[in-house]
Specification:
single chain; alpha/beta; Rossmann fold; GMP Synthetase, Chain A, domain 3; three-stranded mixed sheet; 9 strands; 34% helix; elongated; binds guanosine-5'-triphosphate; cell membrane; ribosome biogenesis; nucleotide-binding; RNA-binding
């Protein structure tokens, strides 16, 4: 499918009380391809939990910490972050357990959902455990609580109705780019976006002078959980010596500006303070040797 024409992509937030089956669902949908940036819970920013890439669409599932944790130490702050996230994503999946009634936890989340305009699906999980009559009653009950765009009963464990849910998600995604490479299996999907951010800044600032003959290889992404910092080391690859001079600029001024702008964007993306170390290298035939590199986020082993 032509990616400029009709390709759909978007960010999807899965929320719900603990134990409703969010991880089981994600595992079923994205299999191995789960992105783990850090083992520790993020305090401010959303983690990408999984990416599903289909021929005509890409779904990026993100974590929304805090929405169901009012008693968290960072309670109010987390809540604000969570709510902002829910406003920014393209779709929210509110997952509930078919076996459980409507309780305080659900009510709490519904209240938050009432104040946003993002489309919300109700996903009723674990339908393998209940009688269809019970399910129907539940659906009727929830219909009165919120204007859900879709209500989809599934069994994440047994795989029931998952395909249908994905079809419906696709309907609500906007047209957009493929954010991640199709075969993203690395535990750092951010690698790809970070390389794109640096490349974008470098191309923008050197416009006209270096038309697209520029690649970015991410050498290292190292997270320090204690200090909440991330060290990124990247090499900008150009084809000619003259281009190297342009990218570096007078006394390094251009490279400094590229680095500064890229760093701000990367900090935004990761929600952590970032140290960005940039190098420039001439590699005359990088395009011929590895024209596919761009699509893979320039993994060192492929280079
Ligand atoms: N019978 C049944 N059990 C399920 C289904 N989906 C998940 N479970 C079980 O429910 C339990 C909780 O599932 P998780 O996927 O860990 O739930 P979670 O929402 O990610 O939980 P937190 O990480 O605590 O937020 C596990 O024992 C799953 O095997 C389902 O469709 N049917």
């Amino acid at each position: 499918m032509n990616k400029d024409n009709g390709y759909k992509s978007g960010f999807i937030s899965i929320i719900g009380r603990p134990n409703v089956g969010k991880s089981t669902f994600l595992n079923k949908v994205v299999g191995q391809k789960i992105a783990i940036m850090s083992d520790k819970p993020q305090t401010t920013r959303n983690k990408v939990q999984g990416v599903l890439t289909l021929d005509d669409s890409q779904m990026v599932f993100i974590d929304t910490p805090g929405i169901h944790k009012p008693k968290h130490r960072l309670g109010d702050f987390m809540m604000k972050v969570a709510q902002n996230t829910l406003k920014e994503v393209d779709l929210v999946l509110f997952m509930v357990n078919a076996e459980e009634g409507y309780g305080r936890g659900e009510e709490f989340i519904i209240e938050k959902l009432q104040s946003i305009h993002t489309p919300v699906f109700l996903v009723i999980n674990k339908i393998d455990l209940v009688h269809p009559d019970q399910l129907l009653k539940m659906i009727d009950g929830y219909k009165e609580k919120l204007n859900f765009k879709e209500i989809v009963p599934i069994s994440a464990l047994e795989g029931n109705n998952i395909e249908k849910l994905l079809e419906q998600i696709k309907v609500y995604l906007p047209e957009g780019p493929q954010y991640y490479p199709a075969d993203q299996v690395t535990d750092h999907p951010e690698r790809f976006i970070i390389s794109e951010l640096i490349r974008e800044k470098a191309l923008h600032l050197t416009r006209e002078e270096i038309p697209h003959s520029l690649a970015v290889l991410i050498e290292k992404i190292e997270r320090n959980d204690e200090k909440d910092t991330v060290h990124v080391m990247a090499t900008i690859i150009v084809e000619r010596d003259s281009q190297k001079g342009i990218v570096i600029g007078k006394q390094g001024s251009m490279l400094k500006e590229v680095g500064k702008r890229a760093r701000l964007d990367i900090e935004n993306l990761l929600g952590s303070k970032v140290f960005l170390e940039l190098w420039v290298k001439v590699q005359k035939d990088w395009r011929n040797r590895a024209s596919h590199l761009r699509d893979y986020g320039f993994r060192e082993d492929e280079y």
